[in-house]
Structure formats: C-alpha cells, structure tokens
Amino acid sequence: MNLVDGNHEILKSSLDKVEKLTALALDVVTGISEMLASLNMTLNVKPTSRRLLNDLDKNGYPIWMSIKDRKLLANGDLVIKPNAVVAKDGSGQFKNVLDAINAYPKKHKGKYIIYVKAGIYDEYITVDKKKTNILLYGDGPTKTIITGSKNFKDGVKTLRTATFSTQAENFIAKSIAFENTAGPEGHQAVALRVQGDRSTFFDCAMHGYQDTLYAHAHRQFYRNCEISGTVDFIFGYSTTLIQNSKIIVRKPGPNQQNIVVADGTVQKNMPTGVVLQNCEIVPEKSLIPDRLNVNSYLARPWKAYSRAIFIENTIGDFIQPDGFLPWQGNQFLNTCYFAEYGNNGVGADAKNRVKWGRGVLKKNVASLYTAEQWLQANTWLPATGMPYQTGFTRA
Question: Pathway of this protein (predicted)?
Fold first, then answer.
C-alpha cells in the first residue's frame, strides 16, 4: 500500500453510522475490561440472549451450529451436494468460477455451495454483497488455485488488484488457494480482498508479495491457512483473527524489507485490528540463506491506532530483535498498539523490542485478545462456522 492510495481507499470503506456508534460503546466496554484486567478482575458482559453463540462443544464448534454445517466444514472426505460445480475439463456446469458465482439465484435462501474441482483458474472474481451465505470449496489449496497478476506498478489501484474479492456476508472458503503472481516488482498486488462481515477461511492459502491479504473490513476468521508475502502482506481495517496458520515471509525485491502486519485502525474506539494466535511465522525456503541479511518485522503502524497482537506464535530467528518498524519517523508511535504474549522461538525474544510498543502483556490482559474475550468485546466470531480455540492454546 502507499499513503495516497491508502487514504483514497479508506474513504471508500468507512464504517456506517450504526457501526461507528457501536464502536463508541465497545470502546467504553474495552476500556473497563482492560482496567479490571490490570487489577486481576474480569468483566462478564455476555448477554443472556447471546450466550449460546459463544459456547462450544467438545470438538470446538459453536453449539448453535447445525450438525449438517459441522460436517460440511470438518469432514474433507464428506460427499457434499453442491449447487454448482466448476471444472476446467468441462465435467461441471461451469468452466469458470465467476460464472458459477454469477449463477447465484436472486431469491436464494440458505447456503449456496460451489465446488471448484482441481485446476488453475486464471480469472478475477468479485462476490457482490447480495450473494450472501456462499460456501466455496475446492480439492485442496495445492490443487484448486484461483490466480491473477494485477498490480500497482501497471497502474491499477490497490483495491482493484485483487484476484478474488468478496463483499458478501457469511462467506466461507475451504480448501482453496488465492494468489497474485505479480512478484515483488509489481509492488501492491492483492491476492484476496475480504470485506463482508462474518467471513471465514479454513484450510486455504493466500500467496503473493506486497499486500497479499487485504482484510478490508468487518469480522474475519482464518484457521489452518497459509499466508505468504513480503511488504505489509496482511493489512486492512477489519477485525481479524488468524489462528493455527502458517505465515510465510518471502524474499523481497531490492531495497525492500518485510513487514507481516500493517493494520489501518484510524480511531481508538474502532474494535478493529489483527490478532495472530498459535501461528508459525517462518521464512520461505528461498529466503533462508539470506534471512539474517534481510530486515523482517512483525508489524508497522499504517494508521494512527494501528493494532496488532501476537499470541502464542512460534517466531523464527529472522525477525529483527526490535520486532516492529515505524511507518514514517515518529508518526503514530504514541497511539499504535503492538503487543505480544506467550510467543516462542528465537524471534520471540522481546528484551530488545522497540520502546514504543506495548511489550509483553500480562496473561489477564492478553486474554482480552483470545477468541472468547475478543467475542465479548466485538461480537464478531459466533457465526463463522469454524472450530476455534476460545482461550489460550497453551497452559
């Protein structure tokens, strides 16, 4: 992303009045929760009417989820009857993914299931906001691949470079890959842009270089995924949790450095940011020989209240000891919120971290950013339809 393009896009994706009012209320609740946490106290604000949304069964699924939906997500070998089948060889109703999405019936109710058979699909796809409740699944992220190469260097605005964009609520993707092959020389080149509320990705891959995953807006959950890139490759203005995933830092172009997260939170009261929990942060194979000569960081503050929390991750030795990188001079250093808890690996040593970061959190404060507390503060994960860890993954 760049400053000019980023400012243009944030205007287009600004929250509506209702969401802003909600953010104000949540800021009050969050402030009280943090204060009590510092005193080893907790605040139970779980409304009775929402209680079931947060309760999980023994397999980690929300108890409100139907048995049918659990099977759809949990059993990769289950024979699912899709509404549409996409196949390059003509064995399905469609040869292109976009055609299957455009066939979504106007008055459709319930899930609309699209099965994309193994193959490389070179196309640009947008799921508009009217096409809700789509489940898009493939034969695995190494077999079913949606690819593109639009990039900023060729004159395309970052927002428009995305290979796959979804604006619809309750979108689910499973066992599929999204990639942008522009390379580091293309600069901003998005593989996946996600804007719809309650979007969920399971066993998926997002591959690119700069700006790979544009977590554009609203609540998003990623689990068992693989996300690769170089500069600011997880960015946006959303409320995002990435859990049990592999974060692969690639070899950047000349005079470039690697930054994993660049969150765009612009107001303190916005319940937005990026949380990585129980992920592996590793260099790709081609970076390994030069990994100690290329500067790689966990995050930098793209906007005034940029928020990135790293919990229980395994961090490789290639991450710079200071951990975080300023955006421009001292800009946003006093207002951003970068923090860690329970990470391990050589790159997790926090004793030489930047002084303007929030450092290593106490356990009771870090718990505010685990799924259960994150749900209480932001109410964003109940409808994801995925198994998830409610609290810490390690004792």
Answer: Glycan metabolism; pectin degradation; 2-dehydro-3-deoxy-D-gluconate from pectin: step 1/5
pLDDT tens across 371-394, in order?
777 654 345 455 556 677 878 988
369 Rama sector, left if φ>0, alpha if ψ -120 to 50, beta otherwise:
alpha
Q: CA-CA distance, 6 to 14, in Å (whole number)?
A: 12
Closest CA to 309 of 256, 383, 257, 377: 377
292 closest CA partner among 315, 325, 318, 256: 318
Q: Would you name the residues annotated as active-site residues?
A: 232
**DSSP-assigned letters across all residues of 320-339:** -TT-B--SSTTTTTTT-EEE
CA proximity to 120, closest of 151, 142, 149 = 142
Rg of the chain over CA atoms, in angstroms? Answer: 20
Residue 52 is predicted with a pLDDT of 39
On the question of pLDDT at 239 being above 60, the answer is: yes
- Residue 123's identity, in one-letter code, is E
pLDDT at position 76 is: 53
Helix, strand, coil proportions of the chain in percent (round to 5)?
A: 20, 25, 50
Place of tokens 């459709």: 108
Is the pLDDT higher at 68 or at 154?
A: 154
Query: Residue 379: what pLDDT?
Result: 53
Residue at 388: amino acid letter: Y
The answer to whether residues 177 and 144 touch, using CB atoms and an 8 Å cutoff, is: yes
d(C-alpha 240, C-alpha 257), whole Å: 24
CA 376 to chain centre: 19
Higher-confidence residue: 28 or 359? 359
φ, ψ for residue 303, nearest 5 deg: -125, 175
**How far is CA 208 from each of CA 44, 155, 223, 256, rounded to the nearest angstrom?**
41, 18, 18, 15
Mean pLDDT in the chain?
A: 84
Provide the token pair at 19.
């969401």
Kindly tell me the burial class for residue 137, based on how many C-beta atoms sit within 10 Å of its own C-beta (0-12, 13-18, 19 or more). buried
Region of 40 on the Ramachandran plot (φ > 0 left; ψ -120 to 50 alpha; else beta):
left
Q: Which residue has the tokens 């996409």?
A: 86
pLDDT given at position 292: 96
